[in-house]
Amino acid sequence: MDYIKLANGVELPTIGFGPGECGYSPKYNSNRHGVWSIPRRAYNKFVRRQLQKRQYIVAIASAIQQGFHLIDYSAAYGDGNLIHRGIQLSGLSRDKLTLTTRVSNRAQFQGKEAVKEEFFLQLKGMQIDYIDILMFHWPVTDFYETTWQAMVELYQEGYVKTLGVANCHKHHLEKLFTLTEERPLINQFEIHPLFTQKKLIDYCKKNGIQSEAYTPIARFDDRLVRLPVLHRIANKHHKSILQVILRWHVQNHIIPIVRTLNKQHQKENFDIYDFSLSDAEIADIDNININARVRYDPDNCDFTIL
Ligand SMILES: NC(=O)c1ccc[n+]([C@@H]2O[C@H](COP(=O)([O-])OP(=O)(O)OC[C@H]3O[C@@H](n4cnc5c(N)ncnc54)[C@H](OP(=O)(O)O)[C@@H]3O)[C@@H](O)[C@H]2O)c1
């Protein structure tokens, strides 16, 4: 495993694992059944939820055991207790891991005290007394400045090792620079070969901010996974196209945060440290860019649903 050093000297693994929200899946259509099936449906829902939780905890443990030591989470996904149980099951001690959490939009809308209250609930849920990385999930218009100030206070009180942000464009970062002496050292945003974000990455680099890629494999988007150029490179290295994409991130000094609860997929995603892409191959993948997001634009979205 390789590491990247942040401006404050903290070392981060070059790849991260984000389990996302437990039970995240397209909505189950429960209106198709008659009223008499309500108790059965409630029971099924309960059982399904317990199974989902178990699968989630086991998946976190297996990701850690396979080498993912940077774990990405958010208060928008839950209270963090399942993360604690996954870490416990993995057998690895908390201090060997880099844990991230984010401030939800819901807390941001309620102001500074709610941001802090939510943060302490995250520590309680994860059963930890500090977090390695604290970010806000989105730069919620008219609220993210106050959120940032609350985060800086938590940092100054010793509850946070490194401050970061997510989904910030250049103008959000410029605003933050005027607010406090502390600057974010990480920006997590959407990056993948369909949306390479070179300008924003360069701006972050010039300002001592490490870029993290969310949705790093574009959620397996068809426009990406069918591209012959990726298959050619993957065949040459005897790797899968996803391994090639994750390797492309790492060689571009971007930390990909990838999600899968599938043990085989986790193994595949971590197995990217025994080959290197040539400069020409990196350039070929850079050229895939069509400036296409698969997620939301922070300047054009409804923060109440994120
Ligand atoms: N800050 C933010 O606003 C923000 C927004 C979005 C995401 N994130 C973070 O980034 C993480 C990842 O983003 P994401 O979930 O949007 O996208 P992603 O990691 O690009 O894609 C996840 C999808 O890829 C599939 N997958 C992963 N590895 C695979 C493999 N080896 N073979 C086949 N399929 C594979 C998964 O399916 P299977 O489960 O079937 O493997 C899953 O459906 C999240 O969990 C979260 O931590 C942050």
Describe the structure.
- The protein has 306 residues and is of the alpha/beta class.
- It has a single domain (3-25, 37-305), classed as NADP-dependent oxidoreductase domain (TIM Barrel, Alpha-Beta Barrel), CATH 3.20.20.
- Helix content is 43%, strand content 14%.
- It has twelve helices and ten strands.
- Strands 3-10-9-8-7-6-5-4 form an eight-stranded parallel beta sheet. A two-stranded antiparallel ribbon has the order 1-2.
- Helix 6 (170-179) links the parallel strand 7 (160-166) and strand 8.
- Helix 1 (38-65) packs across helix 2 (81-90).
- The two termini are 33 Å apart.
- The model is unreliable at 27-31 (pLDDT under 50).
- Residues 18, 20, 72, 137, 166-167, 188, 214-220, 242, 257-262, 265, 268-269, 295 line the site of NADP nicotinamide-adenine-dinucleotide phosphate.
- NADP nicotinamide-adenine-dinucleotide phosphate (NAP) binds at residues 18, 20, 72, 137, 166-167, 188, 214-220, 242, 257-262, 265, 268-269, 295.
